[in-house]
Design goal:
Layout: E1 15-21, H1 27-39, E2 44-48, H2 59-70, H3 75-85, E3 93-99, H4 100-104, H5 109-119, E4 123-127, H6 134-144, E5 149-153, H7 158-167, E6 171-175, H8 193-200, E7 207-210, H9 216-224, E8 229-232, H10 234-246, H11 250-261
Parallel strand pairs: 1-2, 1-8, 2-3, 3-4, 5-6, 6-7, 7-8
Helix pairs in contact: 1-11, 3-5, 5-6, 10-11
């Protein structure tokens, strides 16, 4: 099973995960960008199959998804992309994010999970999975050998939090607050420390915090509250959009962004295997 957020020395900063929509930038450019993330020591790419009208995303990510959808990018194209790029990576893990209604609802679950495993994806986060289907999904994912990313909120009820923690076999995504991506919790990320501690009682998988993380200071705050990793979405996607709008070099522009937010920790680009 993939080790998403390895730490090599005590006290180093949290692991770094970045969210992008597959197809934004276009897949040929994205391939170069993914290799750059690997070179820069990023731990995980949350790579989304684009889907429209997400109720949990702010305008930046919604525009990104629209650009990717306009290029005809769907689940099959994303799996082919992962299969092409994943063998070239030394460190970076890829967690596939797929919306249940848009990408998975009309597919046979077992066959789809096997295709995801065969692509080389290191994990799967299913967005908006109906609660009644969770148990079957966890069982089918285990059978297919696909590590699962689960999610919960600080405001989730204790039973939901315990289930999400127990079923996370890739990592647990603690969403900082109810609302849309790109917005920060009113009390700040430091207020999540108690929630992280409570979740530890139910899981040995890494805990990653996302929503509203934009700067290196935000990253350091998340690390200080005990999380294993931080997930950055809208801030990075906005940098992609800026480069596309200005006709700039998308990969170089994103490299600058990555270096601006990367935590102060040792980097081991040589990590290979699963």
């Amino acid at each position: 099973m993939a080790d998403f957020f390895p730490r090599t020395t005590p006290g180093e900063g949290p692991g770094l995960a970045l969210f992008l929509n597959a197809g934004d930038p276009p897949l040929d450019v994205l391939a170069d960008l993914v290799l750059m993330l690997d070179e820069e020591g990023v731990d995980c790419l949350e790579l989304a199959v684009p889907f429209p009208d997400s109720v949990t995303d702010g305008p930046v990510i919604r525009r990104s998804a629209a650009r990717a959808l306009a290029l005809g990018v769907g689940l099959d194209e994303v799996l082919a992309f992962i299969a092409e790029v994943r063998p070239k990576l030394r460190r970076l893990r890829i967690a596939l994010l797929a919306d249940w209604s848009h990408s998975l609802k009309n597919r046979e679950p077992g066959k789809t999970l096997r295709a995801i495993a065969d692509s080389g994806a290191d994990g799967l986060l299913v967005h908006a999975l109906p609660p009644r289907l969770r148990t079957a999904h966890y069982t089918a994912a285990r059978a297919a050998g696909v590590p699962v990313v689960t999610t919960c909120y600080q405001q989730s009820n204790p039973g939901t939090m315990a289930e999400a923690a127990a079923e996370a076999t890739a990592y647990l995504y603690l969403v900082a607050h109810y609302g849309r991506s790109g917005t920060a919790p009113a009390a700040g990320h430091a207020a999540l420390a108690g929630t992280v501690t409570a979740l530890r009682a139910h899981t040995t998988s890494p805990i990653a915090i996302g929503f509203g993380v934009r700067t290196r200071q935000d990253v350091e705050t998340v690390g200080a509250c005990g999380a294993d990793a931080v997930i950055i979405g809208s801030a990075g996607v906005a940098r992609i959009e800026q480069s596309l709008d200005r006709g700039g070099d998308v990969v170089d522009g994103f490299r600058t962004f990555v270096r601006s937010v990367s935590p102060n920790r040792s980097i081991t680009p040589e990590r290979t295997g699963s």
